[in-house]
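Q: I'm building a small set of examples for a reading group on sequence design. Run inverse folding on the following structure and report the sequence directly after it, with nothing in between.
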């Protein structure tokens, strides 16, 4: 597949790695991503002359204030060509949103703030401000001139001009396009969004129904033996 991609003219792949912590990924039900294989995957893609744009997210429950430095260090040592760092956003209708709403951790219900840049919930191991500042520092560290110089693809078939353009663009963008804020608290809506199809796992369905406020409405059906939740 990579050989065909390279033959077609593909010069970069954008990949959602999400986190370098296996336990963190498992906690949010992302079982496919395996951090122990990330570095080898980047190296393999590079062997075909294709750059890797890694997408990472901060603010998982397993993340503390050390996650920013550790992630950037891993990205630099694994020779990622470019990276984007976003703030965990529990989008309405996702299992993460229902779990956080059930735990009373959603701070803002203003959907305009759900942009992967503003913190709309209470992180588990840091404050909202610490999450935003850490994200900004990760960008600064990865796109520092010393980092760019150290990661520059001197060898191999990657397109050096394109590589440099991407890195300088991201360096400038990360320094100017910042939303240094935590979303202001808003009252919870009277109704919560419901997914078109309920999760298969019983505990996930229960979390969705409870957060959506429909669990009590379905109790009469459960009493009849109907397996809804």
């Amino acid at each position: 597949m990579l050989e065909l991609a390279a033959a077609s003219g593909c010069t970069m792949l954008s990949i959602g790695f999400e986190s370098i912590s296996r336990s963190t990924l498992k906690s949010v039900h992302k079982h496919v991503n395996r951090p122990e294989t990330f570095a080898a995957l980047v190296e393999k893609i590079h062997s075909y002359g294709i750059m890797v744009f890694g997408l990472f997210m901060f603010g998982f429950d397993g993340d503390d204030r050390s996650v920013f430095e550790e992630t950037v260090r891993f990205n630099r040592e694994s020779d990622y060509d470019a990276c984007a760092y976003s703030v965990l956003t529990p989008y309405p209708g996702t299992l993460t949103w229902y779990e956080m709403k059930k735990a009373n951790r959603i701070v803002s219900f203003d959907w305009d703030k759900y942009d992967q840049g503003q913190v709309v919930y209470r992180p588990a191991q840091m404050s909202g401000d610490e999450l935003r500042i850490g994200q900004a520092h990760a960008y600064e560290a990865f796109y520092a001139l010393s980092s760019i110089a150290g990661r520059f693809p001197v060898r191999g078939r990657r397109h050096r001009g394109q590589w440099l353009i991407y890195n300088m663009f991201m360096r400038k963008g990360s320094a100017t396009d910042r939303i240094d804020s935590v979303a202001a608290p808003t009252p919870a809506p009277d109704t919560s969004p419901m997914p078109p199809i309920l999760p298969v796992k019983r505990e996930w369905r229960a979390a969705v129904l409870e957060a959506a406020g429909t669990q009590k409405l379905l109790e009469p059906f459960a009493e009849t033996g109907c397996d809804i939740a």
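Residues 2-91+114-187 form a domain with the Transcription Regulator spoIIAA fold (CATH 3.30.750.200).
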